[in-house]
Amino acid sequence: MPNEIANLPLAALRVFEAAARLLSFTRAAEDLRMTQAAVSYQIKVLEERVGAPLFLRKPRHVELTEVGARLAPIVSDAFERLRSGYDEARGETRSVLAVTSTSTFASHWLAPRIGLFQLQHPQIAVRLDTENRARDFTREQVDVGIRGGYGVWPGVAAHKLLPITFTPMASPALLHRLGTPKRPSDILQMPIIDTSDIWWRLWFKHVGIAEDSLESHPQNDLGAQSMTSSAALAGRGVAILTPLFFQEALASGALVQLFPDLGSDGQHYWLVYAQARRNIAKIKAFRDWLLDQFEPSLT
Questions:
Q1: Is Ribosomal protein there in the keyword field (predicted)?
Q2: Which of 71, 84, 169, 222 could cross-link to 227 by cystine, CB 3.0-4.6 Å?
Q3: What is the secondary structure of 167-186 as a DSSP string?
């Protein structure tokens, strides 16, 4: 067994991991700062060692064969573990925790509470990124993320935090000016913020109103709850928001939830990170702290 490990073609495996991840020999060469010819050679070396083709060569791209598809996640996991172990040995993984989150979750839930985590773990600094895109935990310098969805992402561990729900809210000033709606359909007579948001159609369908009822309204798009909530607080119209993120505004009366009905499309917020890095100390610390914060909502 030791001799077999020593004879593993590590260079070829590293090239295979990049090519399988990117499905392109050209992009793998760029990623590894190699020539495309060198990438092709290393793939050929590995295929000879495995005894079977790993890629189907297409005119403009490559596809994994059945053998390649079985090997790819194993190799990816192994390299991620090596990288994590190396970083841990150098002490880099203990100092800074890189967190990526949707802007709404970050601004309305995480940012006001992240200090509590740092009080418990003063040796861990937190770097928070609110770029609204799915991050690649195998390639980017990101440790954990908060992601909305259904919880199924290849190579990613996912822990359910809370369901994504939504309902119309407005400021008292708007209701004083226009009157409080008595029925959900009354909202259609009021200025509506972010009418292009799919949540509006889902909520109207939930309360029995035709999904196309908003077609006559201007199709504005503010892009995030942090923006639509600001417009609602300013009395510009009715916004559809997640109640959990606006508990203080609702408690103080700055916002009013117009109806008890909550819409949902089955998605949740999830804590996510690379499966291969699940035992990294700083990730475990953040995971335990965050799941403890949501424990009441998960039971």
A1: no
A2: 222
A3: EEEE-HHHHHHH---SSGGG
